[in-house]
Amino acid sequence: MTALDYIHILKTELADALDYYRLGDGDFIFQHDNDPKHTAKITTTYLKEEAKYPVLPWPSQSLDLNPIEHMWRHLKLKLALYEQRARGVHELWERIKIEWETFDRDDCFSVIAFF
């Protein structure tokens, strides 16, 4: 994924999510890590000047401070429990959707409480 791909996702998916949850200026702070596509000049310029999203400063050499990283780990563990590997991308994606839907509010809170 490139910085341009990332910006496209921000313009479409993030914008749709903000609309869906009725979040506007001052209702949220955007957070991402120091992945090169996140820190690329084109991305930081987009977030600051076009989208005008407030961005949480992120330490340069940080551990996984983002709770979603721990959710991904739990998802990978669930996928590893299948007896057979997925027979392709479509089957893998279906398994991901099934397992993601098993996470409930308590799972999310337990990951956040870990911090």
- What is the total tally of β strands? 0
Shape: globular
C-alpha termini separation = 29 Å
Outline the biggest β-sheet: none
Number of domains: 2
Structural class: mainly alpha
- The number of helices is 6
Beta-strand proportion: under 5%
Instruction: Provide the residue-averaged pLDDT.
Output: 89
User: What order do the SSEs take from the amino end to the carboxyl end, as H and E?
Assistant: HHHHHH
What is the alpha-carbon Rg in Å? 17 Å
Helicity range of the residues?
55-70%
* Uncertain residue ranges: none
Description of the structure:
With 115 residues, the protein is mainly alpha-helical. It has two domains: 3-51, no CATH class; 67-113, no CATH class. It contains six helices and no strands. The chain has helices spanning 3-20, 36-39, 41-51, 67-80, 89-100, 105-113. α1 (3-20) packs parallel to α3 (41-51). The mean pLDDT is 89.
How do the helices and strands line up, and which of them pair or pack?
Layout: H1 3-20, H2 36-39, H3 41-51, H4 67-80, H5 89-100, H6 105-113
Task: Give me some keywords for this one.
2 domains; nucleic acid binding; mainly alpha; Tc1-like transposase DDE domain-containing protein; globular; RNaseH_sf; 115 residues
Give a short synopsis of this structure:
With 115 residues, this protein is mainly α. The chain has helices at residues 3-20, 36-39, 41-51, 67-80, 89-100, 105-113. The chain has 2 domains: 3-51, no CATH class; 67-113, no CATH class.
